[in-house]
Specification:
The chain is α+β, with helices and mostly antiparallel strands. It has one domain (about 50-190). Helices cover about 20% and strands about 30% of the residues. It has helices at about 5-25, 50-55, 135-140, 140-145, and strands at about 75-85, 90-100, 100-105, 110-115, 155-160, 165-170, 175-180, 190.
Length: about 190
């Protein structure tokens, strides 16, 4: 038994030295290689786009490719996807007519995507100068649009404009509210 005491003592001292040197030998955070650094970051939400920015960048089209002149497309339908409390959206979609064709133009803040669209023939052209902008619509109707206190589930808002009426669909969890506004005045005309 006495022969084991020096061996156990030696192993204990050796373990103590190993543990102490490991604690003092760690490199500082600045000396860690890039791959070893753990970076914790919050997910970055893409920026929202104002209606004005999207509307002003709608691509024009050429009526005759041999001519230089371009024309602004008449707008018949507008959708804002995932609209925030300021009236800015993650994406804007415009239903437009080009001569005899109709198409949807989707904008994500960086580029436009063209989507074929078979539009109903009875849609009225939207005169942008005669409507309330989504930003103004939201600021004018904040009390109706934004709940206080906020619901437990985050809200998602989709804004649609056609035939002179803004329709705002607000979904939170499994419930949804639909608000209709006059596009010219911004006044609430119906809610369900």
């Amino acid at each position: 038994m006495r022969r084991n005491i020096p061996i156990i003592f030696s192993i204990s001292v050796l373990l103590t030295l190993i543990l102490c040197s490991a604690c003092t030998m760690l490199p500082s955070a600045n000396q860690l290689p890039d791959a070893a650094r753990l970076q914790v970051s919050e997910p970055v939400e893409p920026p929202r786009i104002s209606f004005d920015e999207a509307q002003h960048t709608i691509p024009a089209y050429q009526l005759d490719p041999d001519r230089v002149s371009t024309f602004i497309r008449p707008i018949y339908y507008i959708i804002g996807i995932d609209v925030d409390e300021s009236g800015n959206a993650r994406n804007w979609i415009f239903g437009v007519r080009r001569t005899s064709e109709t198409e949807m133009l989707a904008y994500d803040g960086k580029s436009w995507v063209t989507i074929p669209w078979s539009a109903p023939s009875d849609l009225e052209e939207i005169t942008i100068d005669s409507i309330v902008s989504p930003a103004r619509l939201f600021s004018q109707n904040t009390a109706v649009i934004v709940r206080s206190p906020p619901p437990a589930d985050p809200e998602r808002r989709e804004l649609e404009l056609k035939q002179g009426i803004y329709t705002l669909t607000i979904t939170s969890g499994s419930t949804s509210r639909i608000l209709a506004f006059n596009a010219t005045t911004g006044e609430l005309i119906a809610q369900s």
